[in-house]
């Protein structure tokens, strides 16, 4: 999922976006992950709205990381 998300990102933003996405998938609970995804969205949706949209669309599959 992360690799797929990063294909949309320019090289100049790559490190920052990666760092912010890590906060989502390294969260210890689903609620924390959703909060981090919201923070990610607030910061990056102007430039890369497809990333958070994709994560939300596939959340049913991703939430198994936190259970």
From TrEMBL:
GO MF entries: DNA binding; transposase activity
Top-rank taxon: Bacteria
GO biological process: DNA transposition
Keywords: DNA recombination, DNA-binding, Transposable element, Transposition
Signal peptide positions on this chain: none
Family per similarity comment: Belongs to the transposase mutator family.
Role according to the record: Required for the transposition of the insertion element.
Protein name per UniProt: Mutator family transposase
Organism in which the protein naturally occurs: Paraglaciecola chathamensis
